# Entry
Amino acid sequence: MKTPFVRAAKSIFVSLLIIVGSALAQPGYARDRDWQPQRTWVYVVGLLKWQHRDVFTSFPQTNRRDAQLVDYFRQQGVPEQQIVFLKDGEATSRRVQNSFPAFLAKAQPGDLLFFYYTGHGYKSDDERTTYFATYDASDDVEGWATDSIVRDVEKYFRGSRALLTADTCYSGSLAAQTQRLGSRVSYAALTSSTSNQLSTENWTFTEMLLAGLRGKSFADINGDGEVTLTELAEDIKQDMAFAEDQRATFITTGNFPQAMSLASATRRIDPLISKRVEVRSEGDWYKARVIDARGHSYQVHFYGYEDSDDEWVTIRQIRSLRESESAVISRSDEWESARNPPRVLRIDQERRNDGGWEGSTTPRRIRRPAWDGQPTWNNEPARRNQPLRKSW
# Structure
């Protein structure tokens, strides 16, 4: 019979093997992330409905990615008193303009600000000012001017670094204002569109933002065991070009490190993981990304759909890997220059879709084929569909 000492020693030995095995399974050179929850301040404004529905169309409330973003920071240990989440009716012009400076003033030297907005973006009649639409924004009530956001950070934030993000039309204006007005604080700005460009109706930008912060294996471009800010920006750039035919914006100022480590990444177990591809499902081809692998099966996430729509597929359902990747490069070109953006027409209303296009009565998203014409397999050519989506 084994003595209690032998049994205890065996248990300790097995535990050590598990710990050492787990450590070896991860890349040995991954470093700690470059932000501390206790020294991070999170200000999130998310609007999916507005007081004046004749001016700004409302969106479905289910499975909000802005709420998931806030939950992520809570789970990472950011103190509750360092998080503000204003959504829908809470985000009036008066409240954001009053609460934001007061919130910023509570930070300490060396702290980090994370800012995020999603909703409608619009321009003034003379196109000189870009606004993020607040709940009560109208002809009589101004929205939240992007230049005022940067001015408030410069004036009231006592920390040293600010990461500004936005998922809305004309959101690149936020980056342009940091370059124009930022001096005391070091900034990184990452937005879903350029300063003069409409943005997609999907959550594509915010989903990739979440994936990078969570350290998903497909977000680790070089496979070194961590997700850096540069990698996240490149992933978002590629996603927005491949899935939405638009250009994201990324800039840094001062001494904000582009190689800032955001998260440790899980190990990528297959070279196909992270590839942007087209997948055959239900008789059509759809744009997707490979996010996991198991044996000879691959899990794909369809751009513009819920995680519940993810599928496990075989390699025969995946096509045009090289074609898809080259298409991204040809459409991406260069990062947005905030000082000399491409010119597009201004529109008064935009539409974000979380459950069908404008006028649709179904709350679920309608899957869009990536191509039309006769079904094809692997590398056989087909014609591209015209986009069906509305801008927002």
